[in-house]
């Protein structure tokens, strides 16, 4: 049988960043960038019951329709971002274990130059990098820097919420796509009527999201957003390339006018420190950079960055030299608590409808327990795991 609490606890104790669960396979942990398996193969029934408990009765039909579901929970004291997905073997999970401490620039061992970027009152700051490189943590650290130093109205738009903030000097509102707002696009349109000083956009994947994000950064707001890329120049190029060719010139001009900085990062394990540290490339929007963006000469940005140290730019090579000379390091410890809202637990991380477990799953000890909400009339529908995947499940549901 499977116990998600114990799996999360074991993964956390081993310093894993990700936990993968798949029916018929042992749990897989990603530790320091390497994947390894542990334990016995997981039963499909236990994973299905746990998935229904996590998603809740009212949201379960949404999973059946989309074959995937995103949520965030605090399990065994660890904040987790969970993606549930239908696979050929059944219902699996990909779980990202988030930092168990208050994310700040110092505690993430980032360069203090990042603090200067959040002093801007308007413009666009992009945090880029490949999947799993710590973009969300860096964004959280920058939001926390504003929260601790300035009285501003901050609105975050995330899918799902990964780090929750306790307002200090700033007034913070966090919205989760799919729970608090139907889409990034709607949330961005709403935000322009909500008097924000700072907007944080968790993902920019669709052209419409990118367009609205650029518009928000032009209308007097400081906007922080993420994009997937391996270099700063590639991040800018990907944004422009997402639009039709006939409007790319106007997008480049808009991007050049509003851009404050681009941070591209990757994680590297330091054997001497026994921790992974972020290596960053930092692009500052100087006049030459703005000109290269307007003309579409993104390949020239690299050489400009190499000569842009006086503007606060960092290449990966220069940043590595700074890391080698760095004397003080922060080492996360188990007794550090995240700076979150009081009572931020499984129940408070999601709406009540998403915490309603199926009766049978909640009764079994091997399933993660959540505070049950009142069940709808007639009780929840039970779906037994059968061979043949989700289509068979749907047929059985229709039969009942």
What do these coordinates show?
- Residues 342-387 have low confidence and may be disordered.
- The protein is of the alpha/beta class and 400 residues long.
- It is globular, with a radius of gyration of 22 Å.
- Strands 9-8-10-11-7-12-13 form a 7-stranded mixed beta sheet, sandwiched between helices.
- Strand 1 (16-21) and strand 2 (27-31) form a beta hairpin.
- It contains 15 helices and 13 strands.
- The protein starts with a helix and ends with a helix.
- It has helices at residues 4-13, 44-55, 60-66, 114-117, 135-149, 184-191, 207-218, 232-241, 248-258, 287-295, 301-306, 316-325, 346-349, 359-363, 390-399, and strands at 16-21, 27-31, 34-38, 68-75, 78-87, 90-97, 123-129, 153-158, 171-176, 198-201, 222-228, 259-270, 275-284.
- Helix 9 packs antiparallel against helix 10.
User: Structural class from helices and strands?
Assistant: alpha/beta
What percent of the residues sit in helical stretches (DSSP H or I)? Answer: 25-40%
* Number of helical regions: 15
Annotation, overall tally of beta strands: 13
Overall, the morphology is: globular
* Low-pLDDT ranges: 342-387
Name the beta content range: 15-25%
Query: Rg to the nearest angstrom?
Result: 22 Å
Mean model confidence by pLDDT: 84
Describe the main β-sheet briefly.
7 strands, mixed
Distance between the termini: 27 Å
With strands numbered from the N-terminus, the spatial order across the biggest sheet is 9-8-10-11-7-12-13
Please outline the helices and strands.
Blueprint: H1 4-13, E1 16-21, E2 27-31, E3 34-38, H2 44-55, H3 60-66, E4 68-75, E5 78-87, E6 90-97, H4 114-117, E7 123-129, H5 135-149, E8 153-158, E9 171-176, H6 184-191, E10 198-201, H7 207-218, E11 222-228, H8 232-241, H9 248-258, E12 259-270, E13 275-284, H10 287-295, H11 301-306, H12 316-325, H13 346-349, H14 359-363, H15 390-399
Parallel strand pairs: 7-11, 7-12, 8-9, 8-10, 10-11
Antiparallel strand pairs: 1-2, 1-6, 2-3, 4-5, 5-6, 12-13
Helix pairs in contact: 6-7, 7-9, 9-10
